[in-house]
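Lecture notes, part 5. Sequence design as translation. It can be helpful to think of inverse folding as translation between two languages: the language of shapes and the language of residues. The source text, in structure tokens, appears below.
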């Protein structure tokens, strides 16, 4: 039996996928409301294919609880934010989960950390907890790192098809966990040591952050000299070895905007490109605001309360707004509006999450003259024609209406 701990964006689909493939699974989360929702037969976030997977997992006997269980294998999938001050990984949730596992687990257990962690985290923060509880690692308990790699928006497909990494001290234990993930994963599963697995995951997300930063920096350079960044990227990408990503309003989500900081925090003075990329991506919401004010000036608009933000999630077709660039833009605009709250539209976000500011599409459009397009949800793309007659700043390059402004 497997106990998956943390039923969020990664833990839940992982637990469901295993249960749907014949593994006996109990999912644990400290959030009672979330566990009650799952026990009532409902999923907790939108994702392509999740509802079907949920039904298959229920048929496979999955159980949800707030209690930790006595099992052979524990999979910990809890958030790992970074500490704003030190820039290092904040392991408080991982440590709390490991401590709780220690209270119930018995000899022979394997504890797998799925959460993204900085290289050396298991050595520095997890091993001491296990040893303090009287277990000898390698003899009566084993540790493994199996970082997740799935992309929100395509999680179910990627869980099934992505290659994976398993880091273990002992090859036999690594192979055992490989077999577990192999129950559903059709990709290649590489077994390596723990530190290599930790570093590899952080390196992957940092690679993407740096590449997005390059596209964003190009957008700024091209804007400063009146060149069309999208046309330039399109042509440059026709080169067989060039693949520039797409500029946007900034990098959100709980992964790419967080994980590169682990390298900056642990390797100050060495992670220079990494730091520069983080700064460029973090500066994009401010760049969007500057662009917005420029366009208001050009079009003779003076009333910021007539500007609306289209899209609140951190990217297209997900309902997750963690670290969303729109939140930064919204906060900054609200400060200048003294009570006249900025209007927002996002079909993926529940109204009570941002009370008073999220509107139905028609209300939203009736109360604004200027739309800042921040997310390319399919629903938003399909309703684009409704923006005709408005001033549009398109930060995602998805609007084909004539007169649309770009980054
Ligand atoms: N973005 C751009 N331009 C682009 C691509 C993305 O501005 O060309 C923005 C998005 O709008 C979003 C942010 O970057 O705000 C991140 O989005 P994303 O789709 O690049 O990545 P995530 O954060 O949703 O998921 C990433 C993935 N990592 C990589 O692709 C290397 C995923 O595979 C990981 O599992 C996930 O992080 C994670 O959980 O670590």
């Amino acid at each position: 039996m497997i106990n998956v701990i943390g039923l969020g964006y990664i833990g839940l689909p992982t637990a469901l996928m295993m249960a749907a493939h014949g593994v006996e699974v109990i999912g644990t989360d400290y959030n009672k409301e979330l566990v009650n929702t799952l026990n009532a037969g409902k999923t907790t976030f939108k994702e392509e294919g999740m509802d079907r997977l949920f039904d298959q997992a229920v048929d496979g006997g999955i159980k949800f609880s707030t209690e930790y269980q006595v099992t052979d294998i524990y999979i910990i999938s809890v958030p790992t934010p970074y500490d704003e001050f030190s820039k290092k990984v904040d392991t408080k949730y991982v440590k709390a989960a490991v401590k709780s596992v220690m209270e119930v687990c018995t000899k022979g257990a394997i504890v797998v950390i799925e959460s993204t962690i900085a290289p050396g985290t298991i050595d520095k923060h997890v091993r001491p907890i296990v040893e303090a509880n009287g277990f000898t690692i390698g003899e009566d308990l084993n540790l493994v790192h199996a970082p997740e790699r799935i992309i929100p928006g395509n999680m179910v497909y990627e869980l099934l098809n992505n290659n994976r990494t398993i880091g273990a001290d002992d090859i036999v234990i690594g192979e055992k966990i490989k077999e577990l993930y192999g129950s559903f994963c059709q990709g290649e599963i590489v077994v390596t040591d723990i530190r290599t697995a930790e570093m590899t995951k952080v390196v992957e997300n940092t690679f993407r952050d740096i590449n997005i930063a390059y596209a964003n920096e190009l957008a700024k350079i091209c804007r400063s000299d009146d060149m069309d960044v999208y046309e330039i990227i399109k042509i440059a990408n026709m080169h067989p070895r060039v693949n520039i990503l797409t500029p946007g309003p900034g990098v959100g989500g709980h992964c790419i905007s967080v994980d590169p900081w682990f390298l900056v925090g642990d390797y100050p003075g060495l992670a220079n490109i990494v730091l520069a990329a983080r700064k460029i991506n973090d500066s994009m919401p401010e760049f969007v605001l500057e662009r917005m004010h420029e366009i208001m000036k050009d079009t003779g608009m003076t009333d910021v309360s007539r500007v609306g933000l289209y899209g609140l999630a951190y990217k297209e077709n997900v309902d997750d707004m963690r670290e969303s660039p729109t939140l930064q833009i919204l906060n900054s605009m609200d400060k200048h509006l003294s009570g006249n709250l900025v209007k927002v539209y996002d079909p993926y976000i529940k109204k009570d999450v941002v009370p008073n500011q999220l509107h139905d599409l028609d209300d939203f459009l009736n109360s604004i003259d200027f739309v800042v397009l921040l997310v390319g949800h399919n629903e938003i793309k399909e309703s684009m024609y409704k923006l005709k007659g408005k001033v549009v700043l398109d930060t995602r390059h998805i609007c084909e209406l004539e007169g649309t402004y770009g980054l």
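The translated text above is only one of many valid answers, since several sequences can fold into similar shapes. Residues 116, 148-152, 204-205, 208, 212, 245-246, 248, 251-253, 255-256, 314-315 surround SAJ (CB under 6 Å).
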